[in-house]
Fold this protein.
Amino acid sequence: MRFTILASGSAGNATLIETARAAVLIDAGLSARALAQRMTDAGFPPARLSAIVITHEHADHVGGLSALARRLGVPVFIAPATRRQLRLKEKDESGIRWADPLAAEQPIIIGDLALTPIAVPHDAAEPFAFTATAANVKLAVVTDLGYIPAHVAARVAGCHALVLEANHDRDLLRASAYPWALKQRIASRLGHLSNDEMARFLREDFDGNASCIVLAHLSQRNNHPELARLAALQSLRARHPQRDWESIVAVAPPAGLGSWRAL
Ligand SMILES: [Zn+2]
Ligand SMILES: [Zn+2]
């Protein structure tokens, strides 16, 4: 299995996972044209895509969904409540191949890849994180959640790679020019993961087996890549001092990783 992040953050999210017999895009948060271009830039012909899987209906995750799904003709896996919330016009809905609806804890099989949706606390209709497993290799993609409940931590256990939200620094958010209501939303239990909560999870609830950790969905205004990375490194070093975390922890820029991570 290998994966790359094509886009990360409030301007758009998309993660491409490829195995021997499948290629799946988790979220389609850029325009279809931009997504196709970034796949091509990554050396991946868009026509090779097997399916699109959607975490939730926020615009930064579905912006290019309709156009990309119709252009490529691939099945779209989505929760029923999420699909309703898209409120697609008839012309944007027609021609999309909707796959069997997603449900929490019910794995879907695409080629040699098993994807399991995990319910997460976020202000959306039916938001999911995912684990992706193929040939005994496991990747977890966990973004857009206010905190990490025990059942999410349990699902992430044993993963070889982890894409984990590090949305904001609490002090930067508090001091930012965002309207009060928006700050409350982001910081709430149904909002986005702070560096503190990300670091707490890595220190207290993470088994430390992963060979690749990518911090994702960083706020450009209320976070800084080095702040997020330092918070993660401090936690991981405190818990598992024997590992070389410098080489394991990376931060996804808004424009994506620009390279593949092989597992
Ligand atoms: Zn998001
Ligand atoms: Zn969201």
Notes: The pocket of zinc ion (ligand 1) is lined by residues 13, 58, 60-61, 144, 217 (CB under 6 Å). Residues 2-254 form a domain with the Metallo-beta-lactamase; Chain A fold (CATH 3.60.15.10).
